Amino acid sequence: MNRLFKSLFLMNSLSLILGTIYTLFPGESLFWNSYGILLLVTLTGNILASVSGSGHRKLDLTYLLLSSFGLLGVLLLNTFASVSPTNESSRSLLSNVMLLVLLINGALITGRPFLHKKDRVTPSADLSGRGTSKTSRKITTVFLGLLLFFGVLLAFILVTDFSVGIIEVVVSPYSLFFSFIFLSIAGLYVKLSEVRWRSFKGYLVSAIGAFLFLIFALPFFYLPSLLDKAEADYTEAFGDEWQTHGEKVSAFRDLPVSLPAFFFGIPSEGYELTEDVLYYEGTEGVDAGLELRFDVYTPSMEAADLPGEGSTLIRIHGGGWDSGDKGAGNFAQFNKYFASQGYVVFDVQYGLDDKEQFVGIIPTPEEVSGDFSIDDMVRHLGLFTTYLADNHETYGADIASVFISGGSAGGHLANALALGSSSGEYTDIIDSRMSVNGIIPLYPANDLASFRNLSGEEALVDPKLLVDQDSPPALIYQGENDSLVEPQVAENFKEAYLEKGNSEVAIIEMPYGSHASDMYFPGFYSQSFLYYMERFMYQYR
Questions:
Q1: What number is the average pLDDT over the span 173-198?
Q2: Nearest-angstrom CA–CA distance, 506 and 529
Q3: Structural domain includes residue 347
Q4: Are 495 and 474 in contact (CB under 8 A)?
Q5: What pTM was computed for the model?
Q6: Using 50, 70 and 90 to split pLDDT, how confident is the model at 194?
Q7: What single DSSP character describes residue 353?
């Protein structure tokens, strides 16, 4: 056992050194992915070492607390830094420090048995909560038991497409965090309760912890399958030219996934942000009192020297056509990333239905809500394109090279806007001075507005009816376990392209992916799609 602890001590020490370097100088390479594997093994080994007992109970408990509730803090801090438009680094220094502290604690635990010869590792020892009252132990047991039960529910959500509403969006993007969190909670249950490790109850709790650890690790295990299928599907739709782009464009991601980035975050490169620019103020009819704004993200260096070369990216937020907003509500690090790539990115508001909010917890500005139909929403976005055509020189935006993207309801509206214009049936939707080169819908809610009792012309409600042979190329993101927008919706959209003889359409499918599984920018799903999205835009810009 001491030999195993010595190996873990060396792994913690190396992980700490490399983690410190990565925090200061993050990068993408096979070397750093090798470090990511080392980090995963080290974090797992530390939990097992803490549960088996290092000879210092307080250190063991401290590690398990950091590995459970501390990692939850890392998850939240990374997310807030990523979605905040004004956080220029998109990384949380505090979360990085917490990870390094976790490794320091791991080194202390695993190094103690051989650095202090009198200490012995005794996995068979009584690991119950000595020195605590019976009432405290019972409260702790109940609390931790409820957390494990909650973990089982989350695991069920991950592996099925059972509809649980908006809660599903916080499961699959963070699943690898949950692997360590719930394994650590199981360890805390054993350490703080009256359970002996080598008892039936101890084995049962340990088995639950191990089960949750493996279930939540499934998206990670399926990464090779995801990437193999994504490469094949992308190549089938758009040819193999894209494979040479990474060699020519140094600004591109080197690899589809960076493992340490999942924990340490992905830093944003240079961009400039102008927020809350008013582009439309309604004065009469249904638009009376309506105020619509956008944020614009521009490159901080000469766009001509970057892959985007000033091409325009219009991003439309989701939220069930009645909730949400630009900025943090539209996962702002995507905007930051493509601005740093040389694109001029517009994060745009549109009128939202005010009858009943599908997702009441999402912040929604009052000034954008009203009695709006799907037709009105598309019209509002069309008004933005006219504003942009009139003012594109102010932002250095190339309106002859435009991409439109959005998630969920925003993905549906992106499709309606682009396809309505390209089909010739709605020539006034997009300003004629603009040219749409590609659509990037994420889990697009095509033909689902009727379930929200929203009116609109049939072809705008269901944009697949507008697809023709000359429709812009489409790159689609879809989670395979999305219960809010079922994968069949994306499949039907792709099939509409193929039936019209247009093969320039691909779906990047995310195993175990939920609705909005791209929410965590450093997550495996988001990174994988980003790898293909930047190449798609470069190919068709």
A1: 89
A2: 12
A3: yes
A4: no
A5: 0.94
A6: low
A7: E
